[in-house]
Amino acid sequence: MFFILETIRLGLKNLRLHLLRSTLTALGIILGVTAVITMVSIGEGSKRQALDQIERLGARNLIIRSLKPAESAQAQGGQQRSWVLKYGLTFGDLKVIEQNFPDAEAIVSLKSVGGQVLKGDRRLVSQAFGVEPEVLDVARLRLKRGRYITREDLDQRAMVAVIGSEVARALFPFDDPLGQSMRIDEQVVTVIGELEPVGLAGGAAGTLVGRDFNLDVHIPKTSARDLFGDTVVRRASGSFSAEEVELYEIYIVAPNRERVLSDAARLERLLIALHPREKDYELHVPYQLLESARKTALTWSLVLGAIAGISLLVGGIGIMNIMLASVTERTREIGIRRALGATRKHIVSQFLVETGVLSAIGGLLGVALGVGLSVLIGWGSEIAYQIPVIGDFFSADASLPTTLTGWSIILSFSVATATGLIFGIYPAIVAARQDPIVALRHD
Q1: Domain boundaries defined on the chain
Q2: pLDDT by residue (tens digit) across 109-138?
Q3: Around Cβ 20, how many Cβ atoms within 10 Å?
C-alpha cells in the first residue's frame, strides 16, 4: 500500500514540476474527448429531430396520394389549350380499400378543392381540402385555438374552415382569424379554428408529406364535394387547365406496427389492380422512412464517432512522444532510483501513473468542455438569426439541435484514459530497461 501511495505521489510531483508540458500533453486528449462528445451530440440531435418529424406523420399510417402521370404533365406543358385531365384516387377506390382493410384503425380521405384562397386583396395558391373529423388525429395535427371540423358540420354541409398557421399569418396578419370570413375561389367560408405550427416543411418528413401543413385549409368533405365538385381549375397566363381528381389523399391506420409493412405490400397489390393502365397514385409508408432514418443515423453516428476518435489517437501519440522525451531527459534520475533499490516494476508504475493522471484529467476537462460546447451550439443555433450581421447568414427556422448522450460521455472518457495508458506503456518499459550504471553516467 505504501509503495502505491509513494508511486502516485512521485508521479503527481513530477507532473506539477513540469506543469506547462503536462498541460500541452493533455491538450490532445482534451480536444479529442471534446470532439467526440460534440460531434455525437450534433449527430444524435439531428437524428432525433428527423425521427420526431417522421413520427409525427404516424408510424402506423399508410398514405396514398393522387399523382399526375408523367406523360400527362409533359403533354400539358407542350400545349396551350384547355381540357379536363382525369386521374388519381376515386371514391370507388376508397370503398374497395375499406372492404379489404376491415380491421384498420381508421381510413380517412381528403379532397382537394379550389384554385386559390383569398381574403380581400391577399391571396394564396389553394391548398384547401375537404376533410373528415378523424384527419386531425390521423395526420397528427393539433389545434392552436378554436375547434376542428365535426360530424355535425359534415351533416349540415357547413361553410366553415380550419386554417394552418401560415394561412393565418398571410391572410390575417393583424386580425384574429376566428370568426372571420375568407374565400376559396368564389365560395365564402367562416374560420372556426387555427392549427398549431407544424415543423415539417423543410425536414425529412416534409419531403414525404409533399406539402407544408401550415398552408392547409380544411373544410367539411361534404361541403367540398357539393360546392366544388371534382374538377379543379388551375389558371396560368394566357391559358388554363382543369383536372378532375375525386380524392387527393387516403390515410389508412394499421392496427399495430407489426402489420404496417405487410399491409403496405397488400395495399400496393390492390392499387395495381385498381389502376392497371397507369400509375396515377403514390404510396408513402412513414414507418419505412423511420427505419431507414434510424439506420442512416446509426451509420452517421459511427462515422462521426470514428472521425472524432482519431483526435483521441493523435492525443495518445502526443502523450507517447512527450513521455519518450521525458525518459531521455530523466535518464539520470532513473539511474539514481535504480541504484537506491527501485525495481523495473517501480519505474514502470511511476511512468504509468503520470500518463494515467494526464489522460484522466484531460478526459474530465474534455467532458466538461464537450458538454458545454454541445449546449452552447444547440442554444446558439436557435437565436443566431437574431444576432446582427451573423443573423444574415441564418434563417429563422434554421437550427442545429444537439442531444447529449450518456454513452458518448462514458465511452470518450474511458477511451481517453485507456489511450493514455496504452501509449504510456512503451515509454515506461523503455525507462525501466535503462541500465542503472549507464543511466548514472548520463549527462
Answers
A1: 2-53+292-441, 61-253
A2: 999 888 789 898 888 887 899 999 999 988
A3: 7
